[in-house]
Amino acid sequence: MADPLVIPFRMLDLGDLAIVGGKNANLGELIKHLTAAGVRVPDGFAIAADAFRRHLAENRLDTEIYDALERLDVSDIAALARTAQQIRDRISRAPLPPDIEAAVLAAYDLLSEQYRQAEADVAVRSSATAEDLPGASFAGQHESYLDVRGHAAVIDAVRACMASLFTDRAIVYRRERGYADRSVALSVGVQKMVRSDLASAGVIFTLDTETGFRDVIEITGAWGLGETVVKGRVNPDEFTVHKPTLASGFRPILARYAGDKGVKLVYAPGGTTVEARVADADRRRLVLTDDEVLALARWAVAIETHYAMPMDIEWAKDGNTSELFIVQARPETVHARQVAPSFELFKITGSGRALVTGKSVGAKIAHARVRVIHAASELASFQPGEILVAPMTDPDWEPVLARAAAIVTDHGGRTCHAAIVARELGIPCVVGTDRATTTLHTGEMVTVSCAEGDEGRVYRGEVPFTREVIDPASLPRPSVPVMLNVGNPENAFLLGQLPSAGVGLARIEFIVSSQIGIHPMALLHPERVTDPEALAEIRRRTAGLASPGELFVDGLASGVARIAAAFWPRPVIVRFSDFKTNEYANLLGGQAFEPVEANPMIGFRGASRYYDVRYREAFALECAAIKRVRETMGLTNVKVMIPFCRTLGEGRAVLAELAANGLRRGDHELEVYVMCEIPNNVVLAAEFSELFDGFSIGSNDLTQLTLGVDRDSSLLAHLFDEQDPGVKALITEVVEVAHRHHRKVGLCGQAPSDHPEFAGFLASIGIDSISVTPDALPRVVRHLATASERTTALFEVG
């Protein structure tokens, strides 16, 4: 090469970390090794860290700078700001050594010629020699300059990047993580810009950033330059893709979320960038097509495979050519550090009023007093252990973030600066609340909960919660496979990492009520909705869809797919809807379609709805969602289950409806189970075995109908007992009959979760699986293992 201090990206790889820093070494690695795999990366060159060292030495700045830093107390915010500013000013004003400047300009001219531009538009980015490593992200610590054009602008940007090694936040970040200032130097990367100001850009993680779940790709994006996503200026679009079925040729986009992309960063005359308002139509429109999402996901998998570790990747789309590019890649810095997984399960045990809600980050809970900070000038007032509430965090705020109990922001998505830092710090964070800084007040005691799924909540006061640490390796092997009851898809990626045999009961009611919220028949027949406000809301939420029913199908498919992906390839038994009429009536538009029943618990529910003219069109939507999950996304570990099937004739009618909607039992290895929750299911267990692939005992309803006790009645609560001898006799009988007919039987009722000794009874009669609530898993597993040991010891003694 002509000059060892200015090096083309294509001549670099990870072996050059000490020479050009993490960011530039990673760009070289991508271009050198992944171009052949189709990964598209804009070209450029790196200015080596030795150029930075020479710049300081030849301008006689190095001794002065490092002596000042050794004397600095970084907890003195005013002194920190003053010292850092003085250092940056000296570095950015000093001239580059002439030979280095000449080499930089020569490389810039070659890049301009390569892209057929008189003066190429480039991004000038900092690349510290301790940056983008598995142990530290240095997220946002150093500066980047976009849309830089011309010789003078490039040289100014290079010196400014060098100076940014000494921002307030970078100094504090190094000090807190044990990096000596003299040990870190700064390389500069000059890379051809992608015109994402005319299209979109964002971030990709090759795992779920909240739980460390490795089988998904998480993609975020917004209109314009990617800085708005990285810095949390907007609530971006989000896409989740399942890796294993993507590799098998399916299209497994598990979820699409349209963020409120209110502003975008675009180029302005003079080489600057400005924020512009996003048109309303574009705010509602996703920034990527499905094909583009899948293309980025495949690139991300290729990059992760090459690096053999989870990755944090930045992407951009060129608005002129519609081409996608990868503009940066680095090791993911939080979950990649974990050697053996352990799980903290936080659970709200009390109730409170949610003051604000947003996107949850961290799956944890904390309570403390609020400190509202609107600008960096107010940071000195922050006290350790408070909850930081801000419009959004900026890397300049790094000195105080490490002392916060939690972070709450008005803006930002799950890959914004606040979210990344919160994960590294291991604290809960709620982003994108829109109104936290106006609703919450300094000194107010609140509880920040990120343990209730996708939605993070800030409650008034100290709401009680529990915290359990589970080491999966410490759990014994149970004598019976233990599965989980799962209702909320947002918790699935965490729960899927627990040592369970799969999902014995996936309830879709939570998905329908919380993520869809509209009665399916109201979507199909809005003309029958008589409430004008409900009708207006339905029309608003279905605007732009190919058909109103797609809202239901897509929402249900996304929720089910998330659960199925979390537990892949273990079985996930999805129960079709089992709302009662009063519960269905509470859905938007539902009152127009539901009768009023004296006792909905034993009324028009479960199987009887699916073939009835009053609901069969809606059941077709449920079937369409399951078919999409299994056949489009490839999640064939999904099995389906029919609840509250009263008679054999009803069973046959439902199977016919399934077949008519493309879900024929046996096709594509589809298994259809039936709930055993009515005494008739036990009496005719042999005949039901001919129709279905297996049974799942719903002990709640079976107890209700065996004892004649309405399980919703507080007056009769003392009589409701799933361990009653009569109930246990029916359970024993159905297990014996099913096994004679080579059918499996599980139990998904509440009893084993509440009473581990009941799980011991089930094991003793040879049940094939037990499904429990996630919080009960360790207790039940330990009880079953202990019971098995006692039984073994008894036989050995005998």
Notes on the structure:
- The chain is α/β, with parallel strands linked by helices.
- It folds into four domains: 6-193, Dna Ligase, domain 1 (2-Layer Sandwich); 197-337, D-amino Acid Aminotransferase, Chain A, domain 1, CATH 3.30.470.20; 343-469, 3-Layer(bba) Sandwich (Glucose Oxidase, domain 1), CATH 3.50.30; 508-670, TIM Barrel.
- 38% of the residues lie in helices and 21% in strands.
- The protein contains 30 helices and 30 strands.
- The longest helix is centred in the C-terminal third of the chain and has 21 residues, at 777-797.
- The radius of gyration is 30 Å and the shape is elongated.
- It starts with 5 loop residues before the first strand and ends with a helix.
- 52% of the residues are buried.
What descriptors fit this protein?
Dna Ligase, domain 1, about 800 residues, alpha/beta, disordered C terminus, 7-stranded mixed barrel, Glucose Oxidase, domain 1
Summed up, what is this model?
The protein is an alpha/beta fold and 798 residues long. The chain contains 30 helices and 30 strands.
The CATH topology annotation of the largest domain reads as Dna Ligase, domain 1
The percent range for helix content is 25-40%
| The CATH homologous superfamily of the largest domain | ATP-grasp fold, A domain
Per DSSP, what share of the residues sits in E-state strands of 2 or more residues?
15-25%
Distance between the termini: 82 Å
How do the strands of the widest beta sheet line up side by side?
23-24-25-26-27-28-29-30
Task: Determine the structural class based on helices, strands and strand pairing.
Answer: alpha/beta
**Which residues sit in consecutive blocks of at least 5 with pLDDT less than 50?**
131-139, 790-798
